[in-house]
Structure formats: C-alpha cells, structure tokens
Automatic annotation (TrEMBL):
It comes from the Bacteria. Belongs to the GART family. CDD domains: FMT_core_GART. The gene is purN. Keywords: Purine biosynthesis, Transferase. This is Phosphoribosylglycinamide formyltransferase. The keyword tRNA-binding does not apply.
C-alpha cells in the first residue's frame, strides 16, 4: 500500500505548508522523507497556532521557515484567524497544506479555498471512529484492527476521501496508550507516503472521490 515515490526533479517539488499545534512529530517524518532527492515535495513553511511549541524548534532544526498565528486574539472569529494563516501560505507560494496535529476545526471558507490541496491524518481506519479519542472508541467497539488514514479535507469533519491507510492489530491487553503508540509508528510512515501520492499527482481529489493515475 505504501509505495516508493517516483523520481522527481528537485525544481518541480511541491511547496508544502504544515499547520501544527504541538510537537510536530508527523511534520518531522515528512521533513525526513523530503531529504530524499526523488521525494516530490518539500516543507517550505510550518505555522503553529500556539506560540513556542516544540514543533517550531524541530522545524527550524531542518532549516524550515516558521511562523506563529496565535488564534487567541481572534476570539470566536475563526475565519479571521484562517485568513491570516491563508495570507502567510499564499505569500510563501504554498502549493499543498498538511495538517499535522493542528488542533483547530477549519471553517468551510478555508477548506473550500484549499480544496484538493489540503490533507489531514486521522488515527483510525476511516470512516470508523471519527472525532476524538479514537483509540478508546476502537477498544470499546471490540474491533480486531485499528490504524490511521490520510484523507483530503472536506467541510464535514473527518469525512474526506481517503488517500492511504495503514492497519495495526489490536492485541490482547492493549490499552489506549499502547494502541496509540503502535498507531503513531504507522502514522510516521503513512503521512510521507500519502503526501508523495498527492504531490506527484498520482492521487487527486475529483468530486467526492480520490482519482489515481
């Protein structure tokens, strides 16, 4: 399911903006993958909605430009906050936006503006277990496997078409912590692979489905 990216001219790499709210571990996994000369994308900008989070320092360690747009001064005006983020993305000529632990629900305005160029990772095998506490949901449901999904973002929460998924078994004695750790290992492999599919044009959003070439 996780394929090797096709060879890509460095000059044609898609410029990616990553939105974070914390430590940015998935951002780091993408930055590490992007070191490969044949990877079809580069992280050009990391934006956090919370000042001084660890993910900003980790991004700077890769030589990536960073910015903070603190959501708190905008109060309940979510669109005004997103317009400030959107301006930064556009000034930096961003092609694709990746949500990596970004703890804000986006408005339809932002989602529509970046339609087909906005992806997210969710810790479940969508359409199962949308929302929060997905590992708890999986354990309570008694399913035999769990995992993560990278999907295009649409206005409805966690409802966008899935680009790639990775599965893990649920083992006897698992709790939320052990299951979360095992899923996170797969997230760090899945997100760079899914981004490569989108950045290379092998996966794209067409209507309400993923088209593949």
């Amino acid at each position: 399911m996780i394929g090797k990216p096709a060879e890509t001219n460095t000059a044609s790499r898609k410029r990616v903006g990553v939105l974070i709210s914390g430590r940015g571990s998935n951002m780091v996994s993408i930055a590490e993958a992007a070191r490969a000369p044949d990877y079809p994308a580069e992280i050009a900008l990391v934006i956090s909605n919370i000042p001084d989070v660890a993910g900003l320092d980790r991004a700077r360690g890769f030589g990536i430009a960073t910015a903070t747009v603190d959501h708190r001064p905008f109060g309940k005006d979510r669109e005004a906050f997103e317009r400030a983020v959107d301006e930064l993305l556009r000034v930096n000529q961003i092609d694709l936006v990746v949500l990596a632990g970004f703890m804000r629900i986006l408005t339809p305005w932002f989602v529509k503006r970046w339609e087909g160029r906005l992806i997210n990772i969710h810790p479940s095998l969508l359409p199962l277990f949308k929302g929060t506490h997905t590992h708890r949901q999986a354990l309570e449901a008694g399913v035999s496997e769990h995992g993560c999904s990278v999907h295009f973002v649409v206005p409805e929460l966690d409802a966008g078409p899935v680009i790639l998924q990775a599965k893990v078994p649920i083992l006897p004695g698992d709790d939320e912590e052990t299951l979360s750790k095992r899923v996170l290992v797969e997230e760090h492999k899945l997100y760079p692979a899914a981004l490569a599919e989108v950045a290379s044009g092998r996966a794209s959003l067409t209507g309400d489905a993923v088209s593949r070439t």
